[in-house]
Amino acid sequence: MADRSDIRNIVILTGAGVSAESGIDTFRAEGGLWEQHRVEDVATPEAFERDPELVLRFYDMRREAIQTKQPNPAHEALAKLDREWSGELLIVTQNVDDLHERAGANRVLHMHGTHLNAWCTACDIRSPWRGTLIDRPACPDCGEKALRPDVVWFGEMPYEMDRIFAALREADLFVSIGTSGAVYPAAGFVRNARDLGVQTLELNLEASQGSHWFDESRHGPASVLVPEWVEEIVGR
Ligand code: BV8
After folding, report:
1. Catalytic: 112?
2. Ligand 1 contacts CB of residue 176 (under 6 A)
3. Helix, strand or coil for residue 78?
């Protein structure tokens, strides 16, 4: 990787692999989240329309589960980078858990939403939410029983895309951590970065669907690779 002196602005993309060692199932591994459900059956607006109970139960189960998990050394290393990095830094996460924040990271953008909000389809307000939605509770703002998970489903526009592309345009380095590169537009960010002349690095357990697009791809567990990389970039 090019030397650190010419790197000021960094964009990081994280996926389920960064939370795997915290005990949160990834999507596409053996026994992963989608194993029990076909994606189309739970993570789409059509699924919610067709079988709201199934979808609400799927997200209730995951919302409860993440609250019993702890950040791992990968989250902690990224929080350290956030504290110590004087240049621009944006951690764009596809994850809907809050482990980046609980490790202490602040410059975090949840492009696919978060388990810990409920979104009212009547008044459009998003409220912090740690309980269940299966019992169709009233919206804290408008009182309507119209709450859904504040999670971006397939066919829905991810959040803050303009902010992400603005950060990529200013970036000197794009680092992808723990993602299979299976879902767009996140999976395409490495190509946007390359077209912009940004250096690209992948840290993943194994080759992903996008590995060939990266200048460098390192394989291993995030709890090992991420602290090593942060030391490299900050420690110098
Ligand atoms: C949109 C939230 C348009 C929900 C998620 C054909 C071609 C291109 C695109 C499409 C197409 N057909 C349809 C599309 C669009 C579609 C898409 O990309 N489909 C795919 C299946 C082809 N995309 C969308 O619909 C997106 N929206 O396009 O909108 C639009 C335009 C105008 C107006 C309106 C709309 C929205 C997609 C968002 C879906 N929501 N999540 C929830 O959480 O339930 S997706 C979900 O899967 C994740 O958020 C993430 O984005 C995605 C991939 O998951 P990963 O995080 O990568 O996890 P995965 O298990 O796959 O991989 C884990 C990786 O970690 C592995 O590589 C593994 O090796 C590694 N790992 C494991 N352990 C470790 C590790 N690494 C390190 N250490 C370890 N210990």
Report:
1. yes
2. no
3. helix
